[in-house]
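Readers of this paper often ask what the protein records in our data store actually look like. The remainder of this section carries one protein's record, kept here as part of the documentation.

:::
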Amino acid sequence: MAISPEQASSYHEERRTPEHTFRLTEIGGIIISGNRGTGKTHILSKLQKRYAIEPIDIGTGVRTDFEQTTGEVFGGARTRADGSDLMVDIAQWDLFRTATPESPFLLNSWLGAFFAKKMESKGTLPSPILRILLYTDPPEVANERAAKRDAKKKAISVDQASQENTERFAQDWTQWSQLYPELKGLNLYSPGVLDSDKKPFYDLEVDVSNLDKDTPAEVIHKWLVEEIERRKKQKEA
C-alpha cells in the first residue's frame, strides 16, 4: 500500500486504540534497513500495529505513478526505467524534509538511512530520523532465508533464487554507486559501519540471526522507549 505522509498521519490518529499506549514522539520517523532475508517487512508490520502508523511504501507509489504516466515498466534491476532510482530518492528526500513528531513515519528503505545520515550531518532535517539496521552473522544466513522464500514463491530451485538475488543486488548497487559515489567501498548493511566522520552510521543495529521473527520488533520497541525518553530529558535539561 502506497500512502502519503498526510495519509499516514490520518491513519495514526484514526486507528489509535487503548492498546496503542506508546506514541512515537521527539522523532520524525524510523528507517529500517538491511539485506533481503532479515525480516524487514514483517518487523514493520509488527511496529505498525503497535504504533498505529502505516508504513510508507515509496517505491510502490513511484512505480505506479511512473507506469501510469509513461507506460514504461518500473520493475527490478533488469527492467528498471532510466531515472526511476532518482525518482524514488527524491520522494524520500521530500519525506525526510517534512517529517515531524506529529506525523512520524515508518519506512523500509535500501538507501533511506544513507540519505537521512547525510541530511543530519548537514543540519537539514527538521526532526530526528532514527536509522535501524537488521543483519545476520554471517550474512549468508539472511541470503539463504531470502533464497528459500523466493524459490518457493517462484517455483524455482534455492540455488537459482540465490543466484538471481545476488545478481539483482549487484546490479542495484552498481546503479546506486553511480548516482552516489560515496557509496563505493561502503559496506552499508554490515554492523559497525561508520560515516565519513567516523561516527556510527546507524542508531541501532539488531542481529536477527538467532531470533524468531517477532522478537526483533520487541527489541526495537524497548530501545525506542528508552531512546525517546532520553531525548525528552535531553530537551528538558
Notes: Residues 1-21, 75-79 have pLDDT under 50 and may be disordered. The domain at 5-136+188-216 is CATH 3.40.50 (Rossmann fold).
